[in-house]
Amino acid sequence: MQRRALTLTLSGTTVALLTASAFLIPTPYAEMSPGPTYDTLGSYSTDSGQPAKPVIAISGTQTYPHTGGGQLRMVTVEVSRADYKPNSVEVLSGWLSSDKIVVPRTVIYPEGQTAQEATQQNTAMFDDSEDQAITAALAAKNIKPLRTEVIVDSVTPGSPADGKLQPQDVIDAVDGTQLANPNDVHTLIQKHKPGDTVVFTVTRDGKQQQVSVVTTQSNDSGPSRALVGFLPGTQNVFPFDVKIQLDNVGGPSAGMMFALGIIDELSQQDLTGGLKIAGTGTIDSTGAVGPIGGIQMKTLAAKRDGATVFLTPAANCADAVKNVPSGLRLVKVNTLQDALTALNTLRAGGTPQGCS
């Protein structure tokens, strides 16, 4: 009896310890869930009490209001905070949930990347996606850019450029030499030795100024060279101004929906035909639509917010059909023109190509 009692006691203790560890020991996972959606034809209001502002603001040319009640909704995925480390019970709950996805933490926050760096990277991708969407949309309206500018795409935290150069600075010259493309920035910096000063002529908030940055030495496996600590990019300048005004959203996945919203604003024809349409997909300047992450969470967000049609990148179709919400029609798109053709078909009462 004593041995049996001891065994039962030890077993109970083990179970208790295992149960406690399930609640206490963090795991290397993160969660994704349906995020908010935004009508690119509508206005966006923050929680800070600021006045609502249009998601897409176009000035300097004719635009057309549409009052038919249709929507073009971009969708987002909510991700857990960088410091969130779910325990085993929370991970299991996420795996069993129909409105959450549990993924390795490194999928959202790569190893060695801080939360600040992840945010900066997502912001840079969003800014690039915005420029690509504007270029693709205006190309569909046969409007070409006046010129292409070299800009500061992102700045490395703690680098010599940190606090001196800012994202979206237009780089007019390096050491007095004007630029033809982003590669010129690297070439001109490499003429210096570590510890030298590089003088950038930049336009910031409409005002041109000179910014001096002392270079540092590279610390990677390559040959020693001078570094400043920012990534150059490009942006196109058009005959009129197009701005996408959406706070707290990052990444490139809204590109196609932004492009459609811009086209709608510039067209007498209402693209939606009164339908509530959602969608996702990256876009490049040629109008090619690319895949995105979290497609099943995005279709849930679209359905939750009233969409009946979901424009789906062709490469995401196979995953999207696995858990498509009832009443949401998936439409397959490879290009911006595919999306426009599908919208024409829907307005005419037809059935565009779906995911299968």
Which helices and strands occur, and which strands form pairs?
Layout: H1 2-24, E1 29-39, E2 43-44, E3 53-54, E4 56-59, E5 71-79, H2 88-96, E6 101-104, H3 105-108, H4 115-140, E7 147-155, E8 170-174, E9 177-178, H5 183-189, E10 197-204, E11 207-214, E12 216-217, E13 226-227, E14 230-237, E15 241-244, H6 255-265, E16 276-279, E17 282-283, E18 289-290, H7 295-304, E19 309-313, H8 317-320, E20 329-333, H9 336-347
Parallel strand pairs: 5-16, 16-19, 19-20
Antiparallel strand pairs: 1-5, 1-6, 2-3, 4-15, 7-14, 8-9, 8-10, 10-11, 12-13, 17-18
Helix pairs in contact: 4-6
Catalytic activity: Hydrolysis of proteins in presence of ATP
InterPro entries: Lon_proteolytic, Lon_Prtase, PDZ, PDZ_sf, Ribosomal_Su5_D2-typ_SF, Ribsml_uS5_D2-typ_fold_subgr
Signal peptide: 1-30
Order of helices and strands: HEEEEEHEHHEEEHEEEEEEHEEEHEHEH
The CATH architecture of the domain at 34-79 and 240-347 comes to: 2-Layer Sandwich
What form results from the Cα inertia axes? Answer: globular
Q: Which band does the percent of strand residues land in?
A: 25-35%
Share in helix: 25-40%
> Which strand order spans the largest sheet, edge to edge or round the barrel?
6-1-5-16-19-20
User: Would you state the CATH class of the domain at 34-79 and 240-347?
Assistant: Alpha Beta
What is the mean pLDDT? 84
Helical run tally: 9
- Predict the CATH topology of the domain at 34-79 and 240-347: Ribosomal Protein S5, domain 2
Number of E-state strands: 20
Gap from first CA to last CA? 64 Å
Secondary-structure-based class equals alpha+beta
Extract low-pLDDT stretches: 5-23
- Can you summarize the main beta sheet? 6 strands, mixed
Radius of gyration: 25 Å
Family: Belongs to the peptidase S16 family.
Pfam families: Lon_C, PDZ_2
InterPro entries: Lon_proteolytic, Lon_Prtase, PDZ, PDZ_sf, Ribosomal_Su5_D2-typ_SF, Ribsml_uS5_D2-typ_fold_subgr
Domain Lon proteolytic: 248-346
